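User: Structure please.
Assistant: Input sequence and predicted structure:
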Amino acid sequence: MRADAQFLGIVLFCLTLAMPAPGLAQSAAPTQGRDFAGWLEDFRADALARGISAATLEAALGGVEPLARVLELDQRQPEFVDTFVDYLERRVNARRIAQGQEKLREQRTLLDEVQRIYGVPPAILVAFWGLESNYGSFMGDLPTPAALATLAWDTRRSAFFRGELLNALRIIDQGHIAAADMRGSWAGAMGQMQFMPSTFLAYAVDGDGDGRKDIWRSLPDAFHSAGNYLRRAGWRAGELWGREVRLPAGFDYAQARLDIKRPVRAWAARGVTLPDGSPLPDSDQPGAILMPQGHTGPAFLVYRNFEVIMAWNRSINYALSVGHLADRLQGLPALSRGADLDNRRLSRDQIARIQALLTERGFDAGDADGVPGPRTRAAIRAYQDASGLPADGHASLALHDRLVLESAGER
């Protein structure tokens, strides 16, 4: 669960948590001048002053050592950037769809209850559940207090994780879970829906009425908590998250941005249709066009509820995966485009090369950091437009190869 804006920097990492727990490391290389024992002594004093009980501190942090594996994962950058289709196929596959449909049947009464209270459809809740913890089969098995203490001691994002560690201790203090049972991802996400401690304190619900909010072992608590979060993020009951669409020849790809919204009928007037060519509904509902893999890949018309999904996780690929998995759980078809695309991955170095070559050619792509953000996409679009190419702003291996060849030819 990703509720706080300051968590956006780690959200992509928290989606790759399915790994065996390495246990407590005996030592870890310090990343700051203060040793861990000294840091922990000061933290315990601060936590006591903030009202955390001594018993909770001893149960959660007594004898704790930093986890080397946590530091390794926090500092690791992915070598390659997946295409949207590859990203989607790893998360929305036949096995996950079949399991999700079975879970929908098994939990129908509970899911219907949650929908009545919060307005969130069962398929959406189960889709989140499937992507976050594979329907509860892997919620992470690292001790949350130790993982958060390790990250709070580290210098990279110490303030954020210090706050999350204090929140985790408050959850233990409130009696929702014992310190020994509070386990989750390397970055502190917990339970069936992978809530951060701050998200738990803000949105967790006692769905089964036992006086505790147990998002680890109680599905009523987990689903009510997820429904509560989505409703408070602005979920609109009865509205779709979005749909796949077909774009017409000559479509202005610069209009395919989340911040450009038009009524559905306005997009229809520009030639946008359903994938089979049939017309869009005659509706005033505002939506935005997204092309997560450029003009050769699938296109989507997304609505307000898509932005609510992104409040949970700011990744467009993740949000599209949640929406598409929810559709597939309800028997809707696979995407009409994707199987025949060029799905070769770009490395971070190749993206950085694209950025550097664009800047050399007068298209300011910003820092050559290997991250294709808005500035890089604008530079790509300007280059494509100047070169007579479809100006979709998409970084691809084909674009990389073209720029490299052009650069070599000019030398």
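The CA atoms of residues 13 and 74 lie 8 Å apart.
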